[in-house]
Amino acid sequence: MEEPLLGKVHLPPYCPPLTNGNLKAHILTINVGGRRAKLDAELLCSRVDGGRLGGFARKTHVERLTECDAFFEGGDEYYFERSPAIFEYIVDFYITGKLHRPMDVCPFRLRYELDYWRIPVHLLASCCVIEDASGRTRGTTPAATTTAIAHEQCSAMLFEKVVWGKQRYALYRFLENPRSSMAAKVFSISSALFVLLSLAGLIMSSIPELQDDQKEPIRGLIILEYCCMIWFTLEYLARFLVNPKKWEFVSSTLNIIDLFTILPFIIEEFLPLKWMKEIRGAMLVIRVMRLARVARIFKLARYSTGLRAFGQTMKKSAAELSMLGMFLVTGIMLFSTAIYFFERDEPNSKFYSIPAACWWCVITMTTVGYGDLVPVTTGGKVVAAVASVCGIIVLAFPISMIIDKFAESTGHWGTDDEEPPLSSRRNKSKR
């Protein structure tokens, strides 16, 4: 059996025993392929559980001789016939706690060495992840898998001190992580189908043949709407009740979308339409609420890796999008003012103001070209040509940067249906 870390062991005279008093002072000299490193025994034991060097430091000198490849008495060096290039990064990991990799080493060779030294591969720093042939970001195991493991550990910790913590955590994983079980996968697919059914019902309710005399949907579509809304409401309440971080749940983007999907239906049910019509401006509120039903399409982001990656890309590309907007506004103001002064004196000119010219400039620079406003003067046509070319350049300029962000986001969401992260801080009060 392996001896305890702080227990006294018997070593030859030239190697002092590891006791509680001198453990911190004990230094081991490790020689790997000619690369020497003097490492603190306590550091080796505490950095990673189950590591080869940690177990090596706990052993007696005689036991170490059976594990290493050679021992040099002159320098008290334990020799290992392994790769010195990779061992340099392993030494750095024990010293700093950050595991990096040499960029010129094959990922499979790296994993082979890490397995030998018994260092978990998922500890590889995010800056040293490896891309496979498909372009997905990996750190010999997927970076997203590593993140998911960390999230799951943090989530389990949060449920330790809450009422019915074990049961709530099981239900939380069932609701939030479709990969946790087959039943969770079926539930996730069912939720996505309800979203699609609600969208189909919303679309069909606008068809005149599927409306009654009051231009309201037929009974079948109303029943479908009720079924979908009941499902969405129960699902939202279940997620809310089992989640230990209530405020973080409510403020989450996906959960805000879920709430906006439910609220219009609830408000219309509890506030009768006839009563609302008697209030000034109430019909505008009703129209806005009905328009908000379209927000349910964003619920698909919960079940689509691509949509989540797209949203993450937009968030990360805020600087690039701001730059694009600034360029467009500058071009619109410049070209709309120029074409206004060229075209305003023409008979029946539609460029009667700079705001009207701004509409034309937006359509031209974005290469849409409706054709409702057309310059007729030579100067106006020159401005239109320059605006078109500048629009193409402005739109193309940040595209490569945004594509890089999208590739990074798709790498992060590499594991489908990843459980959403919870804060790693423990919740001290019972819920």
Automatic annotation (TrEMBL):
Potassium channel tetramerisation-type BTB domain mapped to chain residues: 29-127
Swiss-Prot/TrEMBL keywords: Cell membrane, Ion channel, Ion transport, Membrane, Potassium, Potassium channel, Potassium transport, Transmembrane, Transmembrane helix, Transport, Voltage-gated channel
One GO term describing the cellular component: voltage-gated potassium channel complex
Subcellular locations according to the entry: Cell membrane
Membrane topology summary: Multi-pass membrane protein
Primary location recorded for the protein, binned into one broad class: membrane
Alphabetized GO MF terms: delayed rectifier potassium channel activity
Residues spanning the membrane: 186-206, 218-237, 249-267, 319-340, 352-370, 382-403
InterPro entries listed in its UniProt record: Ion_trans_dom, K_chnl_volt-dep_Kv, K_chnl_volt-dep_Kv5/Kv9, SKP1/BTB/POZ_sf, T1-type_BTB, VG_K_chnl, Volt_channel_dom_sf
GO annotation terms (biological process): action potential; protein homooligomerization
Domain Ion transport: start-end pairs: 185-411
Protein's UniProt name: BTB domain-containing protein
